[in-house]
What we know:
The protein is mainly alpha-helical and 231 residues long. It is built from ten helices and two strands. A hairpin with a 2-residue loop joins strand 1 (82-87) and strand 2.
Amino acid sequence: xxxxxxxxxxxxxxxxxxxxxxxxxxxxxxxxxxxxxxxxxxxxxxxxxxxxxxxxxxxxxxxxxxxxxxxxxxxxxxxxxxxxxxxxxxxxxxxxxxxxxxxxxxxxxxxxxxxxxxxxxxxxxxxxxxxxxxxxxxxxxxxxxxxxxxxxxxxxxxxxxxxxxxxxxxxxxxxxxxxxxxxxxxxxxxxxxxxxxxxxxxxxxxxxxxxxxxxxxxxxxxxxxxxxxxx
Length: 231
């Protein structure tokens, strides 16, 4: 009898400890949410609609679906074309309407062009001298105009039509050659090579050969740069 009483008391103590730990974790999560998340909107801005978020992780659970595009589309159908989400303590806005995106990029371009100092080493991407990292101002406007006139504008795309046609013809010939030889083709890899050669030819005036390892070296440098940017 004495042994049963001791076992019962031990079970009660363990249950109490588990309950106490759960309460502490809940209080800590609530405190963390109020301190680090609520202060993200100190000025009381009228933010876009937002689905219910979980403590700590925010809306991360909504983006971990096997088909995240379908999950996000369901959220847009429920909350409208503007959606405010948060991953941990990082807020961002998603836009699904072409008219709203056009208004944001043209009518409110100045309001959305400025950004804070990014936590990336100055030795990467030429520091604040690059188009992506430069603060909004006269220099950034010059870089934007230069990018449009030399790469993305209608006249620039027309000038580079021959480059794209040549690379696509080379890509097509390679696929036909492999088909005649009954060789397997990694479409994802070949498409990446095609895109890389088009971009390099348009931006640097030359393509990178696969024979002497130039293309592989370039892809390795790009991958290493992204890894360093994430640190």
